[in-house]
Design a protein that fits this description.
Blueprint (H helix, E strand, L loop, with lengths): L2 H11 L4 H14 L5 H14 L2 H14 L3
Main location: other
Keywords: Sporulation
Family: Belongs to the SspI family.
Length: about 70
């Protein structure tokens, strides 16, 4: 992913509340538009880099389970 895309996405959500982030994520998922995937990827990258190893492990386990269905 191009760094400029990361920077643009970050600047668009800087200062957003938890509720605003939830609304953004839910809107992106409900729309199902593939052009919104880079934004969700940036969110995941930021979360991953600020998470503990235990949180990362829980996430990857849950993700693995979600793709078992």
């Amino acid at each position: 992913m191009n760094f400029q895309i990361r920077q643009a996405i970050a600047s668009n959500v800087t200062g957003d509340s938890a509720t605003e982030f939830r609304d953004t994520v839910e809107d992106a998922i409900s729309r199902g538009d593939e052009h919104l995937l880079p934004g969700l990827g940036v969110f995941l990258e930021k979360w991953w880099n600020s998470s503990t190893p235990d949180e990362q492990q829980q996430f990857t386990e849950k993700l693995s389970q979600a793709f078992q269905n």
